[in-house]
């Protein structure tokens, strides 16, 4: 090395140093020594931002210690190893003040530091340095850069700063920022450096020693205020670490002097009727001080003041306390609702001695409604699916009761009823005005003195004109206002939203009972029919009934107002003949009408389902050249639907014409009878014409009532379908029990850790399965035949491969871990435990996309208020997955497509994996991630999954690694090469159950 360095050039090697070995750069301008910045100042100044010349890249190889280092550093490592092995181990009581060859007084070591002489890597110190606050870390780097430039300028030789100074500063200034393990490592490092320095200084020349003294003197003015030395670690609390040669010490991280506070779970559940919901908050890291954090509730589908009480306040942790609780009061509501949700949040306002977790600062609280839809009147029959014993009108009436409880619907309904009443009053007043117009104003037999209000016929005409037009203008304005009162829209929205929310929460057996067409038709046709043909028609029915009663009042009032005799025949005929005839006909036609509507709805469902199946299976139809066969079958489906539609239309036509026939017959009979009385002078012309109009309007009113009743009958099948879908079982109660089990198990494990004398580290809690309990026939291969016995404990921060023969339950086990399939919750121990604070993501084998931009699809699972969805991070992950530049350009495009039809199978699978890595969950469960790829691409994917676990996320800020939880990847393996990237292999078998297996014991049939 000296021959390569040239004449007079020597090399100073410090084993494993923070600075390592540096090439002497070209002469640089002299830099002034940096002064320590104030906490609020920007640091470092521009003068210290000039980059240093990087050392020449050297060939790397394994040295005696198994480290990957430069060729020139191997001698240093061997020398350090020799010094370390030859250095005598200091006994625990031999701590004292040591002196170098020059007599310089050394730092006094503690018994724990002197008892160990262990050599560490420079990555250890760099890892600690990266964990320090930004301004202090920059101060150290600037100090080291200044020292290096001074040595290079004065000696023109390659050398490094003394590491002990950096170690001393880190230990004295940052004693509260490291875990016990890091302080123990620092003590080991310091004890080794005491011995190493004396050996190194023994090889220095006088000139180098003089330069060394000058640097030390210059740096004395830069030293930060010295804090008390770190407290000695009791022997029973010392952490013994064994570092493998492949261990990345950047991951030996720990909490800072501020603890990390988060919610204890991603989701909380409570049942309607409970007085409050308990929310538990946990903190990890430094628990020696008291902490305070603010919490608050945020509305979701559940609204404050009706379902829960808006709650906010501060939660205080006492010293040593790891878990605290607060409560959210709930209201007891007998009205039906879907599973309503609100949110609890931790916010940084007023936070003290802690910092918020990156993800678990917001959680969803689900309130389980135990009422039946629409009301509890027929709850027993509805839950038993016995709809034949439920009267259709009664069920529809219960829906009306439920709907009117909605505040928006109730306010709008009251306004609409008032407007309808105003319209009826206006119609009745017009009847009086028509009689007055004909018998008084237009009659030549009446003088002006006999007129009522204005004693002038011309003025009376203008008065009647104004009295007719002005109320009509107001009626028109009010009728237009009806559309803004949101009665129909809110009613439809309630049904459609609740149907979708129910579907998303169905348990697996409920989801298997329905077809896609059932849900689509229920949300489009049936919801519209129940609202418009049911509820809105009911309001129209009330309007017509009100009109009939006002007309009845008119018939009683006319004789007294105009001085005519009472004629009871004119009153009884329209008010009793019409309903008697119409109700009789309706009773005779109800069965025929209902059956025709059932047939039409069934044929329409078949029509929609066939179209959907054709669109979904187009590729299969085209590949097997079955287009003609599908079109022929579709013609039969269309013919059946058209026939049912025609038959129903014919029945409705007959039904609608019957009240018109009755009206024409009764009005014609009245004209003949009353016309003779008018000719004889026993009835005035005005009253005769008004009665004709009354008979016509009453006939039309009864016709509308009859039509409304017919349309309400057609609502019964739609109402039955909606009631059935709204009351199918959901998995929310099971998830509540499972989450309660996980939370209680998490708390129990935390207590066990505390009782064992250690700090409760939630990252050490495993994912456990112990004789897993599943429902019969649960799982894709039939849960009844699966063997779920055996105990399995998956440590966080591992890559786990599931292997086993086809149909033996690998996919089922993966779905259980990811929460797709729930274990039995009706037993004391379901045999499954997932730490409640972990975010779990399930990635299906078949890639799925929604219509939107490509960036929206890739960031679909990103947690809000995090930087995981950063455009550059998404782009970098896609590049690491070898997506083409053409595809990457689409990330900036606003183009919305169904990307499942645009990309190839391999690109779809890559994007599917990229979306999971962008979401950045703590646990990701993937079905056969390498199935669609060749060996080379499979290695790339598995390498990224391994890096995802090792780095606690991909493309993340390395400075925040101590605040991120371990990542775990569990996948079903389809290739033997993928097992090389796994840390643990789990075998799933019908014969042996669930067990750990070595990689060498995996057979080809286990990778099917």
Topology:
Blueprint: H1 2-5, E1 60-62, E2 68-70, H2 71-86, H3 111-114, H4 122-131, H5 134-155, H6 163-173, H7 180-201, H8 206-220, E3 259-263, E4 267-271, E5 276-284, E6 291-298, E7 312-317, E8 323-329, E9 340-352, E10 354-356, E11 362-368, H9 379-383, H10 392-404, H11 407-441, H12 457-481, H13 487-504, H14 508-513, H15 516-562, H16 568-616, H17 618-623, H18 627-680, H19 685-726, H20 732-755, E12 767-770, E13 791-794, E14 799-803, H21 810-818, E15 832-833, E16 840-843, H22 854-858, H23 871-880, H24 885-889, H25 905-919, E17 923-927, H26 935-950, E18 968-972, E19 984-989, E20 993-997
Parallel strand pairs: 3-10, 4-11, 14-18, 14-19, 16-17, 17-18
Antiparallel strand pairs: 1-2, 3-5, 5-8, 6-7, 6-9, 9-11, 12-13, 12-15, 19-20
Helix pairs in contact: 5-8, 6-7, 10-19, 11-12, 11-13, 11-15, 11-19, 13-15, 15-16, 15-19, 16-18, 16-19, 18-19, 23-25
Brief sketch in words of this structure:
With 1008 residues, this protein is an alpha/beta fold. A six-stranded mixed sheet has the order 16-17-18-14-19-20, sandwiched between helices. Strands 4-11-9-6-7 form a five-stranded mixed sheet, covered by helices on one side. A four-stranded mixed sheet has the order 8-5-3-10, with no helix packed on it.
End-to-end separation in angstroms reads 56 Å
Number of strands: 20
Describe the sheet with the most strands: 6 strands, mixed
Structural class given helices, strands, pairing?
A: alpha/beta
Q: Tally the helices: what do you get?
A: 26
Structural shape: elongated
Strand order of the largest sheet: 16-17-18-14-19-20
């Amino acid at each position: 090395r000296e021959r390569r360095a040239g004449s007079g050039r020597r090399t100073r090697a410090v084993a494993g140093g923070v600075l390592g070995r540096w090439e002497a750069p070209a002469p640089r301008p002299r830099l002034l020594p940096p002064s320590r910045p104030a906490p609020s100042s920007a640091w470092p100044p521009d003068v210290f931002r000039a980059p240093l010349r990087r050392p020449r890249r050297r060939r790397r190889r394994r040295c005696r210690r198994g480290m990957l280092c430069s060729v020139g550093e191997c001698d240093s490592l061997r020398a350090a190893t020799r010094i370390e092995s030859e250095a005598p181990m200091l006994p625990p009581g031999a701590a004292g003040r040591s002196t170098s060859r020059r007599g310089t007084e050394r730092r006094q070591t503690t018994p724990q530091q002197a008892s160990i002489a262990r050599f560490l890597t420079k990555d250890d110190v760099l890892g600690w340095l990266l964990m320090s606050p930004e301004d202090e870390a920059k101060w150290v780097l600037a100090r080291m850069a200044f020292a290096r430039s001074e040595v290079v300028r004065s000696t023109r030789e390659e050398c490094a700063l003394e590491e002990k100074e950096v170690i001393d500063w880190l230990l004295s200034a940052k004693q509260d920022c490291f875990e016990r393990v890091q302080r123990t490592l620092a003590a080991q490092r310091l004890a080794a450096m005491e011995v190493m320095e004396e050996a190194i200084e023994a090889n220095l020349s006088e000139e180098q020693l003089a330069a060394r003294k000058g640097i030390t003197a210059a740096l004395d003015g830069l030293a930060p205020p010295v804090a008390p030395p770190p407290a000695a670690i009791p022997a029973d609390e010392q952490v013994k670490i064994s570092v493998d040669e492949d261990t990345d010490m950047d991951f030996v991280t720990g909490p800072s002097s501020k603890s990390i506070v988060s919610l204890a779970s991603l989701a909380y559940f409570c049942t309607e009727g409970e007085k409050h919901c308990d929310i538990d908050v946990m903190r990890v890291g430094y628990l020696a001080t008291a902490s305070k954090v603010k919490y608050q509730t945020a509305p979701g589908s559940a609204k404050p003041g009706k379902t829960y009480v808006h709650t906010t306040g501060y939660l205080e942790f006492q010293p040593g306390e790891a878990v605290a609780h607060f409560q959210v009061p709930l209201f007891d509501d007998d009205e039906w609702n879907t599973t309503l949700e609100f949110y609890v949040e931790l916010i940084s306002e007023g936070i003290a001695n802690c910092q918020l977790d990156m993800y678990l600062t917001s959680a969803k609280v689900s309130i389980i409604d135990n009422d039946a839809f629409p009301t509890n009147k027929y709850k027993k029959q509805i839950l038993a699916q016995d709809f034949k014993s439920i009267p259709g009108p009664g069920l529809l009436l219960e829906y009306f009761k439920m709907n009117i409880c909605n505040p928006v619907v109730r306010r709008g309904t009251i306004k609409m009823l008032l407007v309808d009443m105003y319209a009826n009053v206006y119609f009745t007043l017009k009847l009086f005005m028509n009689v007055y117009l004909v018998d008084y104003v237009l009659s030549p037999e009446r003088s002006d003195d006999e007129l009522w209000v204005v004693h002038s016929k011309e003025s009376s005409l203008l008065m009647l004109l104004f009295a007719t037009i002005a109320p009509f203008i107001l009626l028109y304005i009010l009728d237009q206002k009806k559309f803004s009162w949101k009665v129909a829209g809110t009613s439809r929205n309630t049904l459609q939203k609740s149907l979708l929310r129910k579907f998303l929460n169905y348990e697996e057996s409920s989801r298997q009972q329905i077809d896609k067409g059932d849900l689509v038709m229920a949300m489009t046709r049936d919801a519209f029919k129940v609202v418009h043909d049911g509820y809105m028609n009911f309001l129209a029915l009330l309007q017509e009934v009100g009109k009939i009663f006002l007309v009845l009042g008119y018939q009683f009032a006319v004789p007294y107002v105009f001085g005519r005799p009472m004629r009871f025949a004119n009153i009884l005929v329209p008010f009793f003949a019409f309903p008697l005839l119409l109700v009789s006909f309706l009773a005779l036609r109800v069965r025929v009408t209902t059956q025709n509507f059932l047939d039409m709805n069934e044929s329409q469902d078949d029509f929609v389902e066939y179209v959907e199946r054709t669109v979904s299976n187009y590729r299969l139809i085209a590949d097997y050249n079955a287009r003609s066969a599908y079109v022929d079958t579709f013609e039969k489906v269309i013919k059946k639907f058209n026939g049912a539609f025609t038959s129903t239309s014919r029945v409705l036509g007959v039904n609608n014409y019957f009240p018109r026939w009755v009206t024409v017959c009764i009005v014609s009979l009245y004209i003949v009878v009353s016309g003779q009385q008018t000719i004889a002078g026993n009835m005035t012309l005005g009253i005769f014409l008004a009665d004709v109009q009354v008979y016509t309007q009453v006939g039309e009113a009864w016709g509308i009532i009859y039509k409304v009743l017919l349309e309400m009958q057609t609502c019964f099948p739609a109402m039955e379908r909606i009631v059935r879908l709204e009351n199918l079982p959901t998995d929310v109660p099971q998830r509540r029990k499972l989450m309660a089990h996980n939370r209680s198990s998490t708390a129990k494990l935390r207590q066990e850790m505390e009782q064992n004398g250690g700090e409760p580290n939630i990252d050490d809690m495993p994912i456990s399965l112990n004789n897993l309990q599943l429902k019969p026939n649960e799982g894709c291969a039939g849960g009844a035949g699966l063997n779920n016995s055996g105990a399995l404990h998956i440590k966080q921060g591992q890559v786990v491969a599931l292997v086993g023969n086809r149909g033996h339950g690998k996919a089922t086990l993966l779905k259980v871990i990811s929460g797709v399939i729930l274990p039995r919750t009706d037993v004391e121990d379901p045999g499954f435990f997932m730490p409640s604070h972990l975010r779990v993501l399930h990635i299906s084998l078949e890639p799925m996309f929604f219509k939107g931009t490509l960036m929206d699809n890739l960031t679909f699972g990103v947690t809000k208020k995090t930087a995981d969805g950063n455009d550059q991070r998404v782009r970098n992950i896609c590049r690491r997955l070898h997506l083409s530049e053409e595809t990457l350009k689409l990330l900036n495009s606003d183009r919305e497509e169904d990307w499942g039809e645009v990309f190839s199978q391999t690109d779809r699978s890559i994007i599917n994996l990229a979306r999971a890595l962008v979401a950045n969950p703590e646990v990701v469960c993937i079905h056969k991630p390498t199935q669609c790829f060749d060996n080379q691409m499979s290695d790339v994917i598995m390498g990224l999954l391994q890096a995802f676990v090792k780095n606690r996320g991909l493309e993340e800020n390395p400075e925040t690694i101590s605040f991120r939880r371990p990542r775990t990847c569990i996948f079903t393996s389809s290739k033997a090469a993928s097992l090389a990237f796994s840390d643990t292999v789990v075998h799933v078998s019908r014969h042996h159950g669930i067990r750990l297996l070595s990689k060498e014991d995996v057979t080809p049939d286990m990778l099917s």
